[in-house]
Structures are given as structure tokens and as C-alpha cells.
Amino acid sequence: MYRFIYYKSLRMCNRSHSTSFNKWESVVGLEVHALLNTNSKLFSGAQNTFGGVVNSCVSLFDAAIPGTLPVLNRKCVELGIKTALALSCKVNEVSSLDRKHYFYADLPAGYQITQQRAPLASDGVINFQVFTPGFHKKPYKKSSKIKQIQLEQDSGKSLHDAELKRSLVDLNRAGAPLIEVVFEPDLQDGEEAAALVKELVLIVQRLGACTGRMEEGALRVDANVSIRRPGDPLSTRTEIKNIGSIRGVAGAVRYEIERQKTVLENGGRIINETRAWDAVGRATIPMRDKEVVQDYRYMPEPNLPPLRVNLKSKHDTQHVISVPLIQEQIPELPESSRKNLIENYQLRPEAAIQIVNEPILLKYFVDLAEERSQSTKIANLLINELLTVLNKNKLDISDCPITLRQLKELFKLFFDKKISLEVFKNVLDDLVISSDSDKMPSKIIQERNWTLISDETEITKFCIEIIENNPKLVKQYKEGKVKVLKALLGVMSKNSQNKFDMSLASRIMEEVLKK
Amino acid sequence: MNKLSSYTIKEIHRAYRDKILTPTSFVDLCLQKAIQSIELNAFTTITDDEAESHAIESEKRLYVDRKPKTLDGITIGIKDNFCTSNIPTTCGSEMLKNFVPTYNATVYARLRKAGACLVGKCNLDEFAMGSGTIDSIFGPTRNPWQYERNNWKIAGGSSGGSAVAVTTGSCVAAIGSDTGGSTRNPAALCGVVGLKPSYGLVSRYGLIPLVNSMDVPGILTRDIDDCVAVLNSVAGPDDLDSTTIKRDYKPIEIQDIDMSSVKIGIPKEYHCEGMDREVIDTWSYVSDILEKENCIVKQVSLPYSSASIVVYSILNQCEVASNMARYDGIEYGLRTDETYSTEELYASSRLRGFSEVVRSRILTGNYFLLTRNYNKYFIKALKLRRLISDDFNKVFNGEDKVDLLLTPTTLSDAPSYEDFSLKNNRDQCAFQDFCTQPANMAGIPAVSIPIRLSKNGLPLSLQLMGPMFSEELMLNVAKKIESIVKFPSFDNTTLADKFVKI
């Protein structure tokens, strides 16, 4: 079998209108599919896993074998409700499931079970901070309303072998549990869209509802983009499907806004179409021939009774889930964490955002800051030094191999002035490279002979040596050029391989010079 | 010896205990009946290997372990739209001709667990779409009553194979499915008992659906006691079917009930145009009997009855359109050699796999489900369905309520194949299902009971309907009627003379 996807080239009108100086306003709305982190699928007992052997996690129901019936997985409903509550949604007492029909090789039943008429939850809001270092000078608060959250099945995967002219289907993902979060078009640009997605990832991760691993397709974003003149009603939108990374969201939306501007300014017309984000080419491209409008012929799923939940009490039964009971299990959310860092640890908003954006960083920070008062310093060390070292070694922060025990010792050594900042960085580098949780920083420092010298006599002796070897600089200093002190200290730090406590060294050097 | 194949379950079990009969010898006898009546085309597959090995298991439990199960050594036929592991399940369709499931439908699994022995899979209209069992790729099933090779009556449908298998004594009981009357209609035309249980009482898991919201597994037997025995072993909650009721099933008991406390309603709307005089007379005959038994018999009204058949038709086609979407030739079923594109593969597989009856229902259903038509047809039909269901509620629960309703099952005795096939499938169903499909719309239980023979020598049957989960009372009253009317069962001892010589 083969399937055709038409990649149409951009068609633009050559006639140009000179109205480009007029301002455009862009409108962005997102639809996010999050794969629920459950053992089994939404309606079957097959394993819900990523990366299994092809077609090894497929139940009879997932392959749409005639006569099989769906059985709703309670855990999926719980995680859906948990997410809905974390996003301040109104959980619906009764929701229902519908069939959405379309033919596709990786959709075995010929329909997807979703929630079209009465979703699990509706009317929520997400509050988040928009701050991309290097793009924004300061963070700002933004919020987007949530129209609804619905439970639905994922489809399988088609693999097209153009050479052998055949298609292969993997049904491991078929029937996997998704929630679709539909946001109102409340955003303006790609950075806001990316920040929203980042916040959502953090929330679902905290809830344990979804791994948030976009690279595995556990969270996929569709972006609806349109532009208009300020004050005008919403105009024709395009939909960018299945964007698989946060920076991809920013890039795709930005590209699409610019593309639409160009089309309109050249007298063209935006057509309602589905586009894909080409992450390599960094462009959105038309996905399928949209001349034929799909009618999904929705129909209630007759094999599943309406889904009822208990909104009023903590009485939980096998068939009716208590929502207040789930409400109790909601952990602290990123927005509160940031507030906490700013109010109780006196961090700047920028630092708070960056720390909260990386769950590991936050964990490091909270544990390190527990033991000492220099919270700002800790935050800066984490954001600047740790992230730099990880970047240098091309490691994702979530894969940071350093244990809290190692980090605690390293910070103590630094704050106790046993090591210099340089040694601190070097040790971090060593810890990252060796990835050995048993190797303690003190051991590394000892082995490498990096211990900071704070013995005054030894430092004095070394200072004298430096002074003797650098008569020129000493002369300048004595003539009043006090700045030269820095140069002398530089020589000292270089010659000593960063082993001196430099604040102490600086004081002693001055004293010796003044003698 | 041949009379043994008309024995009831109780009689068979007694014969097993007395060693007049053993499960293996009885199964052989049934298989023999199935072969003798092969010309009637009741089976799509005769499962002689399974039947014999099941019989051996029963024999061991009976005579070695001495722990017999409730249906040990009882032969059954299963309509060929219930999945049976390692046994072809065709739905009478080209599409599933080669489909061999890897799992058992709950109904079959429970019957096996109770010790029943599978004789074969029973013929049906393609995907159960019909009321005559004439639209199957295996050819029509023929009614054994008044059978002549060149002039035979239809068996009714769509569970015609199941009804004929029971009538001929090829099995003691058969499972059918009932969406609009598909169990009761052939039972009525073949002169056997046909039960449509309440929706949700018996699991649909493994039943290849026609209309999910109306389908129920049906039971066909030669008498009410057997029907109850089968129901008691298949009914009850099933985790694999979310629409089954959650509470535990309490087995039904047949006892001598006080008929004077029973109120029977005669819905006047069922006295419809085209109903045969003999059917109306039979109806009066039984209502008179009930009155004589001190039942309170009175006329009631179900005003929305006339809308039922149209509503049924719309909802049926919508669900069919959806349920048939899975047959694309990719995972299982017929796949053509088409390689131009996936879409072409779908189109050619579905064209070849489905008959015109199936295709036209799919097309119509999809038309009704289009966004622009959804409210006009589907939603309207659902609203009417609610009104039809409310009609029953009022009659059963309102002021002046009745316990059960008595109506004909079909409008006439079994039509000849010649007459029947003059009409198209849609009109056949609209006519045949008139009295039966309202029960499916409301989900309520109904049972067809053979009463007497028409002047043509064909069975005439009536139907009892009751409120949801009222099977116990309904079947007790049915038993009472059965014992009074003494329907002359089909004499299957003549089968050998009829067919084998030919």
C-alpha cells in the first residue's frame, strides 16, 4: 500500500501592495495531545509503552478485531481529571465518548474514540511566564483559557517504504491514551506558544500524568495561526500539526506568522489548510490536499455508557471516581514554585523561571538552599555554571549524572572557601564526564591536588615570589596604578593553578606590596 | 432412538444418569441430524471434531469425576457472528469468509464452561442484516416445516440457521443474535422458543455487532425450560462488555405461579395492516386462555409504535456504517490485490467483500451521519427512540400498569422463498420486524412462543414482552402458555426419510 501526501509549493501572488507598513496582529491558539502515563491503553489491557518491538503491544481490541469491545481504563480518567484540576477546569459530572470516522491504515477501526459532545472537563486557564533569555529582556505573565480537555485514543503508525512501494503499520501506539487540551486563541507569537507548552509540560510531569517527553511524541502540539489588523475579527487560520519540540513550536509559529504576512502583503489570500513543521528546513509546508473537506460523521460510542464522576464527596467506588479525592493529590504546581522561590528565597523572577523550568535544577536548588542562606548565589551557580558544563558536554539537563550528595559536598567546599570558582567548575566538569555517583568531589580535588591554600604564610611566600618576578608591574603599582593589582593576582592564580583562596590572596598581596 | 433428539435438557441428563445415553452417543446423534438435514443449510460450519472432543470431556466429568456441569453433554449451535476460537466466524459474508478468531465470545465461553458441546456455526443473513436468512454467501437456510425441494418456506432471520438447527434436533439449543427480532422471528417461523433477553443482561463481547445499542445474544430452544437453563448459564455481568449490568445475576426459576396476579396488556397498535387473519385469531386464542387462567387481560396503547420501524431503520444504518468501517482488508478479512493506493485497496476490498445490502446500509448510514444531516436524522431518531421507550415505561410503570404485553411475533406464518424474495431486503425487514423491533429500541426482554399450526401446517407464534430484567415473570408466564397450548413440535424422526434418500 502507499499513501500520497502532496507537498505543494508555496504559491504566492506577485502583485505587491504597498500597505506593509500597516501593523499586523497575530493570533495563536494551541491544541496539545498528551500521552497519559499509564501501564495499559485507554480501552484495552495492552501495554502502553514507547519503543516496544513492532506490533508487540497490541490487544485484539487495538487491532479492531470484530466483536471486541472497549473497556475504559480508570487510571486514564484519573490522570485526565488530575490534569483538568491542575488547569482549573470544571470537571464535568457526566461526559461521553464519540466515534470520529476516517479511513487510515493506522486507524484499524475506521474511527477514533474521542470526546466531542461532552468532554471530560472544560473552561480552565493556564498562567505562565514568558521569558526566553536572549529574546526577552524581562519575563512577563501571560495566561490562556482552556476550552476543553478530552480523552481520546492515539492512532498507530504508518511507515512508508517508497522504494519497495509499500506501507507498513505498527499498532503499538494504536489505542494509547491521550488527553487533548484545547486552548483558546489567546496567544500572540511563537515565544508565548513555546512558553505555554513548556509550562504545560512542567505541570503534567509534576502530576505524573505524562512524561512530557516531546522527543518520544508523548506531547504533541498543533498550532492554529492567523493574522489580522488590530480590531478586526479573527481571520482564516492555518493549522500546523504535530510539532514535536518546544523550540519547534516557537519556530513554526514565528515562521507561519511571517509567511502569512508575506502572502497578504503580496495581495494573496490565506487558505484554511493543515501544514507541517519541517524542523530541518525550518519552514511550514502544506500537508495534505485540503480541497476535499473531511466530514468525520461523529456518532456516540454505543459500547461505552456515559462516564460519571462524583463531584461532591470523597466517596470513591469502582465505577465512580471521586473528584475531590483527586483534588487532594494535586502537588505544588510550577507557578507556586516560582512564587516560593521569589518570596522565600529572594530570587529574581528570571532566576526563578529558569530554575523551575528544569525539574532537576529545582530539586538541586531546594536541597542546597536548605543548608545555607546564599540562595541567590546557589541559583546563579546552578544556572550559570552547571548548565554551562552540561551544554559543553552536550548533555540534556534531565540527564545530568551528578547526584545531590556530590553536589552538596561540592557546594560546601566552595562556600567554605576550600576551592576556588575555577576548581568548582573543573570539578563539575569532572563529575559530568565521569558520571560516577560514587566519586566524591573531595576525592577528585585531592587526586588532582586542587585544594585551596589558605595558609597565610604560604600565600605570603608566594606573593613575595610574584613581586620579585614582576618588577615592572610592581613599579606601576607603586606609581599609583592600583589597577595593576588585578594583573598581579592573575599571574598568581595562573602560576598556582587556582589553588589559592583568592580573596585572602588579594588582601595579602596588597599588604606585601605596601610594605 | 431418534426421538432422543427431541429430548429436553432434563430428559437428556436423566438419560445420561441412567446410562440410556452418553454424551458421545448423543453428540453423534445430533451430528447425524445435522448431516441428514444438510439440505436445509442451517450450518456454515459443522464442528464435528469439537463436538466429539467436548462430548468426551463431558463424559469424563459425568462418569469418572462424577462432577457434571449444568450443560454437560448438551449440544449447541452458535450463530456465525459470535467469535469462536480457532473456528471460522464468517458472518455469512465474503469479507470474513477466511476469518478465524483467536478468542471466544463470552456467551460461547460460558456455555463451554457449563459443559455444552458445539455442533456447528449457524447460517445467517450477511452480518445479520435481514429477516429471512436468504442473504448469506452460503445460500439461504430453508424452513423444515412443509419442506419441498422446489417449494420451500423461509426460515426467518437473521438467525435462521440457529432456529433450523434446533428444530431439526441437530442441537438442543442455539445462540442467535437479536437486533430487531433476529432471534424471535426465525424462532416463530420454525416453531421453537426464541428469547431476546434484556439489553445488558447477556454479554455482547465477541458478538460481531450489527447495532451495538440494540444487539443482544438470543437463545433458541425447543421449550421454555431449556431456554431458562441456557439463559442461567450465559447471563450476568462481564467486565469485557461495559454495557452489561453490574449486579450479580440471580438464576431464574420456573415454578407454578399464581396467574391471577398477572396483568397482561394487549397493545392495540400491534394490530397492524397486513397482519394475517390466522395470526390475529391465534392472538385472541391465547389472550382468552390467559383470561381463563384468571390473568387480567386488557387493551393498552403504545402510541409511538408506528414510528418505530423508521427510527429503527435510521439508527440501524448509522451504526452499521460505523461498525463496518473496520473492514478495510488490512488487519484481517478479504483483501484484494489492488496496489494502486490504500484508498483503492479499501474500495475494491469493500466492494468485493460486502453484498449490495450491506453496502447500501453503509452508504445510507454515512449519509445520515454527515454533519449537515446529523440533527435531521440521527438526533431525531434518537428522540423518537426515547418516546418509544417511554411508551413501554408508561405501560409497565404508569397508572393502570400491566406486567407483560402479549403480541404476535410475525405478521404471518413463514412465507415461501419465492414470495419473500420478490421484496427487497429493506421491505422484508420493515414487514417482518414490525412486532419485534420495538423491544430492541427499549432494550426490554421478549420471548416468542410457538402456539399452533396454521392451515398451511406452519407454526404460528406469539410474543411476550416485559419491563427491563423481568425475565423471570415473563418466562414463567411463557411456560404456562406453552403447557396449555401444547404446540405440536416438528417431528424430526422423519428427517432421514425426507433427505437421505434424495
TrEMBL record, chain A:
Keyword Cytoplasm appears in the UniProt entry: no
GO CC aspect terms: glutamyl-tRNA(Gln) amidotransferase complex; mitochondrion
Keywords, ordered alphabetically: ATP-binding, Ligase, Mitochondrion, Nucleotide-binding, Protein biosynthesis, Transferase
Reaction it catalyzes: L-glutamyl-tRNA(Gln) + L-glutamine + ATP + H2O = L-glutaminyl-tRNA(Gln) + L-glutamate + ADP + phosphate + H(+); L-aspartyl-tRNA(Asn) + L-glutamine + ATP + H2O = L-asparaginyl-tRNA(Asn) + L-glutamate + ADP + phosphate + 2 H(+)
EC category name: ligase
Identification of the protein by name: Glutamyl-tRNA(Gln) amidotransferase subunit B, mitochondrial
A Pfam cross-reference name: GatB_N
Described purpose of this protein according to its UniProt entry: Allows the formation of correctly charged Asn-tRNA(Asn) or Gln-tRNA(Gln) through the transamidation of misacylated Asp-tRNA(Asn) or Glu-tRNA(Gln) in organisms which lack either or both of asparaginyl-tRNA or glutaminyl-tRNA synthetases. The reaction takes place in the presence of glutamine and ATP through an activated phospho-Asp-tRNA(Asn) or phospho-Glu-tRNA(Gln). Allows the formation of correctly charged Gln-tRNA(Gln) through the transamidation of misacylated Glu-tRNA(Gln) in the mitochondria. The reaction takes place in the presence of glutamine and ATP through an activated gamma-phospho-Glu-tRNA(Gln).
Entry EC number(s): 6.3.5.-
Gene: 693097
Species assigned in the record: Bombyx mori
Homology family: Belongs to the GatB/GatE family. GatB subfamily.
Oligomer status and interactors: Subunit of the heterotrimeric GatCAB amidotransferase (AdT) complex, composed of A, B and C subunits.
Localization of this protein: Mitochondrion
Keyword Nucleus: no
Automatic annotation (TrEMBL), chain B:
Keywords: ATP-binding, Ligase, Mitochondrion, Nucleotide-binding, Protein biosynthesis
GO cellular component assignments: glutamyl-tRNA(Gln) amidotransferase complex; mitochondrion
Ranges for domain Amidase: 29-475
Localization: Mitochondrion
Annotated GO biological process: glutaminyl-tRNAGln biosynthesis via transamidation; mitochondrial translation
GO MF entries: ATP binding; glutaminyl-tRNA synthase (glutamine-hydrolyzing) activity
Top-level class of the enzyme under EC nomenclature: ligase
Active site: 79, 158, 182
SUPFAM superfamilies linked to this entry: Amidase signature (AS) enzymes
InterPro entries documented for this protein: Amidase, Amidase_dom, AS_sf, GatA
Catalytic activity: L-glutamyl-tRNA(Gln) + L-glutamine + ATP + H2O = L-glutaminyl-tRNA(Gln) + L-glutamate + ADP + phosphate + H(+)
E.C. designation(s): 6.3.5.7
Spans through the membrane: none
Protein role: Allows the formation of correctly charged Gln-tRNA(Gln) through the transamidation of misacylated Glu-tRNA(Gln) in the mitochondria. The reaction takes place in the presence of glutamine and ATP through an activated gamma-phospho-Glu-tRNA(Gln).
Family statement: Belongs to the amidase family. GatA subfamily.
Subunit text: Subunit of the heterotrimeric GatCAB amidotransferase (AdT) complex, composed of A, B and C subunits.
Name of the protein this chain belongs to: Glutamyl-tRNA(Gln) amidotransferase subunit A, mitochondrial
Taxonomic placement: Eukaryota, Metazoa, Ecdysozoa, Arthropoda, Hexapoda
Encoding gene per record: GatA
